[in-house]
Design brief:
41% of the residues lie in helices and 22% in strands. The protein has nine helices and 14 strands. It starts with 6 loop residues before the first helix and ends with a strand. The protein has an eight-stranded mixed β-sheet with strand order 5-8-2-1-11-13-14-12, with helices on both faces. A two-stranded antiparallel ribbon has the order 3-4. It has a single domain, classed as 3-Layer(aba) Sandwich (Carbamate kinase). It is of the alpha/beta class. α2 crosses α4. A hairpin with an 8-residue loop joins β6 and β7.
Length: 287
Amino acid sequence: MENMFSNAERAEVLTQALPYIKRYNGKIVVIKYGGNAMVNEHLKEQVMEDIALLWLIGVKVVLVHGGGPEINEVMSKFGKKPEFVDGLRVTDKETVDIVQMVLAGKVNKSLVTLLQMKGGHAVGLSGMDGGIIEAKIKDERLGYVGTITKIRTQPITDLLEKNYIPVISTVASDRHGNVYNINGDTAAAYIAGALNAERLIMMTDIAGILRDKDDPASLIPEITVSEAKTLHEEGIISGGMIPKVDCCIEAIRKGVKNVTIMDGRISHSILMELLTDEGAGTMVTGG
């Protein structure tokens, strides 16, 4: 593998990336790393390698993460069965304790450690730290699932100014000390909007928006917000993709330049999206 490319070819690849490096240098890029895209350890290392590389070339990366599969695993050890309503986890008092322990603890710190092993400087936070994500109860039926009422960007921008990668888990609190489980895509959209980020990249376990859900070759590379509404009406955007696209639209409304939904299971998909002509996944723009 080492000798597949000559030094000249490697140099050519780097020079082709130069306009993109200039474009994103000093800009904020929020990356949402989804639970189902995190299950393969080798891929997780590659994603952290990509993020460390972006940081080293001057991109201000903010990593927002979920951890659904890990939460399910710990719940089963406690003899609890996950329950979902409209794609949102029903979260009783015991479950919110598990969510806090897994997301703000195990998952967050493992990502921070990996980033540092790859040469990045990272600091782990939860949405509760510095009151980054303030929330209130979303729906009594869901228990401690929160709807976001406020984002405080100061702790995030302080870390970015000191040249750290903030790694944020999506648990929040209210003024009475209640802890809430927040949907990761929603949290990433709100954080990217509040930071006025250049880009939001949502890494998931699907290729992007497909015209035919069974044909990966039918990937739609770019859509506008109004086209997204049409695709929704036509049933092309359906099921679990609906809330993801809604989050993309929310982020754009809040001032993010564009949002990409991409397959986190593809090696170096972040670098392909940000540093090449080709890109990866489906980009949603304001049009």
